[in-house]
């Protein structure tokens, strides 16, 4: 299993680790209006799943804004940002930030995504910073579990993987 630290303290990661080539696992998260959203809802599209611990922190905000900017340039690619923040907090943040190109989703209810993708930080009940790219056929083509939760992911590698995904 991937080793992750958060603020340089080791954390226990729960869930199933995902590897390139795996069939993407379905999950259920909540949109800002409390409606359920699944991976299957975006079937047939290339997806970047940007995972953040909390939208109200500096690195998470920058990661979300960066993928929002890049998504505007990526034809046929959907960007899903997932955290355990409450949908109400996500809606407030998104309205203030003016995001238009990413869908911000909450895994707070039952950690369905976190369990399926191996990103639950047990001690904090937050999701570990990570990025996944899933192709149109629901095959995982890129995985990055960021080793230190306060660091940024490798944006260029994730974006290159999304551009290359079929």
Describe this structure in words.
25% of the residues lie in helices and 28% in strands. The strands form four sheets. Strands 8-7-6-11-12 form a five-stranded mixed beta sheet. It contains four helices and twelve strands; from the N terminus they run ββββββαβαβαββββα. The mean pLDDT is 94. The chain is of the alpha+beta class and 166 residues long. The chain starts with a strand and ends with a helix.
State the shape: globular
Biggest pleated-sheet summary: 5 strands, mixed
How many DSSP-defined strands? 12
Number of helices: 4
What is the helix fraction of residues, given as a range?
A: 10-25%
The separation of the N and C termini measures: 28 Å
Fraction in beta strands: 25-35%
Rg (C-alpha, Å): 14 Å
Structural class: alpha+beta
Spans where pLDDT lies below 50 across 5 or more residues: none
The arrangement of helices and strands along the chain is EEEEEEHEHEHEEEEH
Overall pLDDT metric: 94
Lateral arrangement of strands in the main beta sheet: 8-7-6-11-12
Fold blueprint:
Elements lengths: L3 E3 L2 E3 L1 E2 L13 E3 L5 E3 L7 E6 L6 H14 L5 E7 L3 H11 L4 E5 L5 H6 L2 E2 L4 E2 L2 E5 L5 E6 L9 H10 L2
Parallel strand pairs: 6-7, 7-8
Antiparallel strand pairs: 1-2, 3-9, 4-5, 6-11, 9-10, 11-12
